[in-house]
Write the structure tokens for this entry.
Amino acid sequence: MTTALPLFPLNSVLFPGLVLPLNIFEQRYRALMRDLLKIPEDTPRRFGVVAIRDGREVAQTSTGLPESAPPQGSEPMAGFGPDPMTSFYSVGCVADASTIRERTGSAGGAAPGGSGASGASGGTGSGIDDASVEEDEAAGDGPGYEVLATGTTRFRLHSVDTSGPYLMGEVEELPEEEGDGAGALASGVLRAFRGYQKRLASARERTLAAGQELPDDPSVVSYLVAAATILDTPTKQRLLQAPDTATRLADELKILRRETAVIGKLPSLPAADLTRSPTSPN
């Protein structure tokens, strides 16, 4: 069975159970947040996060464009490729917005948190300064929003509707199947992940935090490790869309062993943090 869900494309992958902070400024996503705020607080305020395959998170700014050009982020597909079904990966994650707060004052640029967003600043930065945010809000487009959401369940994207103020997807939620041997694989992945953390901390000349609690539920382990390991978007996407938990864990075990071996052969990793730190598309 399929259902309609607002879409929020990112240059990163959201996993179930992971927290997603967003600082929203583009017109299309302000419209989405206004609609979500109409939903009662005791009802899930859901939207679908999909990783971008073709395009970028933030629409091109109006700098250097004619005055007749539409405002930044006013078109649902602005910044993405021409075909919505090839612009985004086919498996995404439902996000439940627990907090949607109107921004009191301009706060463009990079926001704290781990993930960036189209029309939102986060892990990839936005390249938008305070002045542009103030211009948008002065033009009557409404305030920006600070959002805190959590990934819940995976979904498969069947089609995309571009006719409204923001993208809507026809999605089918995907059950999480455990698969054979998930429990034993989870134990192996946790051991490998600990070794990976130690090698990474050593390469960065940092101390690994002691007493860090890790879960023992196989599916939770699989998503936590997928999110916490430094990997490119296609690899993280592959882990998200694995057919079951056991398959995801088996893939992670291979990845962790490979990455740990590579890190161990390098004297240092001075640029490792660049994969997580905010950057500007400009």
